[in-house]
From TrEMBL:
The keyword Repeat does not apply. This is Tripartite tricarboxylate transporter permease. It comes from the Bacteria. It comes from Streptomyces alboniger. InterPro entries: DUF112_TM.
Length: 504
């Protein structure tokens, strides 16, 4: 109860006119920056860090929190409308959101995403207030074998539910894992797949891969078929969610935080894994399997809610342990140090006004985000009225600008085009794009955690399954892999039972 009393005091800090202004500025800037491909929340906070030097710490961090949530929502906007993720956490939103937009339901997809962000952020922040010490204790106890098991779960789960076959999903995943190998080996420093190029020694940024596979690949695919299919603008459709959409989405909005919040709190977590797992969960539970891949609203509502809740989980580790689990948290940690404040177990005692004002501002930021973006959903959707040749030309331009902004190297544009051609080939042969992006994002971390686990166990494979958590996860993986066979055997057994009953 003491935490909630402190939170009430935090609202007294967050609801002052000046701090409300900083929250609104943060949400607006974050949304605007998140819409630009390649410029995610981490870069936004880093760019705006010098601007806050003259602010007092509480106002600065309230604005940072607004930028964080706003940029996460802005990234989903371009994912849904243009199939161009603004950042890696918005990749999953494109899978069902963009088909919805192409079918004239872009406003509904944006509204489902906005409400999902609101629900996920609210539930995640309540969990942050209530469970921060407990989640922090759990995060400290999770080791390399557990991280590796979770990443294998993400690989298996996504490749098993996407595409027309598991083989194609696995092929897509291998493409992503190969791209993820490019650069220096993190443990030995040896170059891998760089072909002697120093520019490739740092690896290929995941934003370039995501923008290349989604935006460039999509633009090239559309260009290849424009002459055959015509260049009509995509319809906008009705502006608001129907009652049927709400009935299908509300459970997804509530399930998302249960997946997103814990993953945000653990190192190597962030929003990528929970959004993938939320997508898989919603597809498994959906009663409308025929719509998946063509615009199932649950595939937008659940992952976006999980993404927002993971942002609250990220703050648990940063505030209670001083442990940044995402790039944004790392930049915010640098900002704390800039003000001479050290996050950790004593932060809540030494800087209670700052911490509880920041947490209260998350609630305020969520309300502002919903109030600003829900009415704007139909306006954003009108982007789709632009004729497709002009629309995709603009996408190519902004994708190139975003990719160049990541590293400032001309070779990034060449890599973007090559990966775009790979994306075009994947569409031509029916390979799902998402497993490839997962491979790039999680592949290097999975390799690092695997090698750490094997080092701890002196090379023994049994070291990968020596914790209850990892054993549980591998049991779940075995169930996912075996489920199609079990389902087929069960169906045959039921059919035989019915035939015997009918014969009798």
């Amino acid at each position: 109860m003491n935490a909630f009393n402190s939170l009430i005091g935090g609202f007294g800090t967050a609801l002052t006119p000046l701090n409300l202004l900083w929250a609104a500025v943060g949400v607006l800037l974050g949304t605007a920056i998140g819409v630009l491909p390649g410029i995610g929340p981490a870069m936004a906070v880093a760019l705006l860090l010098p601007v806050t030097y003259g602010l007092e710490p509480t106002g600065a961090f309230i604005m940072f929190a607004g930028i964080y949530y706003g940029a996460m929502f802005g990234g989903s906007t371009t994912s849904i409308l243009l199939n161009t993720p603004g950042e890696s956490a918005a990749v999953v939103a494109a899978m069902e959101g963009h088909p919805m937009a192409r079918a004239g339901r872009g406003a509904q997809a944006l509204a489902a995403a906005a409400i999902g962000h609101f629900a996920g952020g609210m539930i995640g922040t309540v969990l942050l207030v209530a469970l921060a010490p407990t989640v922090a204790d759990l995060a400290v106890g999770i080791g390399a074998p557990d991280y590796f098991a979770v990443m294998v779960l993400a690989f298996i789960a996504v490749t098993s539910v996407l595409g027309s076959s598991r083989v194609r999903g696995l092929a897509s995943l291998l493409i992503g894992l190969t791209i993820g190998l490019v650069g220096l080996d993190q443990m030995t420093g040896q170059q891998r797949l760089t072909f002697g190029s120093l520019q490739l020694a740092d690896g290929i940024d995941v934003v370039i891969v995501a923008v290349g596979l989604f935006a460039i690949g999509e633009a090239l695919w559309v260009a290849a078929h424009l002459r055959r299919t015509g260049a009509d603008a995509i319809p906008v459709g009705r502006p608001w969610l129907a009652r049927k959409d709400v009935r299908r989405s509300w459970k997804s909005w509530l399930r998302g935080p249960l997946i997103g919040f814990p993953f945000g709190a653990i190192p190597a977590g962030g929003a990528e894994i929970p959004t993938f797992l939320s997508y898989v969960t919603e597809k498994r539970l959906s009663k409308h399997q025929e719509e998946w891949g063509k615009g199932a609203i649950e595939g937008v509502a659940g992952p976006e809610s999980a993404s927002s809740a993971s942002a609250a989980g990220t703050l648990v580790s940063m505030l209670t342990l001083g442990l940044p689990t995402t790039a944004v948290a790392a930049v915010m940690l640098a900002a704390f140090q800039q003000y001479g404040i050290q996050p950790g177990p004593l932060l809540f005692e030494r800087e209670p006004d700052l911490v509880w004002g920041l947490i209260a501002s998350l609630f305020v930021g969520m309300v502002l985000l919903l109030a600003l973006n829900l009415p704007l959903a139909p306006l954003w959707a009108k982007l789709l009225r632009v004729p497709r040749p002009y629309l995709y030309a603009g996408i190519l331009f902004f994708a190139a600008v975003g990719a160049y902004a990541v590293g400032g190297e001309p070779i990034d544009l060449v890599i973007l085009l090559v990966i775009g051609l790979v994306g075009l080939g994947m569409r031509r042969y029916g390979l799902p794009v998402l497993p490839a992006v997962i491979g790039v994002i999680l592949g290097p971390n999975a390799e690092q955690q695997l090698r750490r686990a094997l080092q701890i166990s002196d090379g023994s494979v049994s070291g990968l399954v020596d914790t209850p958590f990892s054993v549980t996860v591998y049991g779940l993986i075995a169930l996912i892999v075996a489920w199609p066979l079990l389902k087929k055997a069960l169906t045959k057994a039921l059919a035989r039972a019915r035939s015997r009953d009918g014969g009798a």
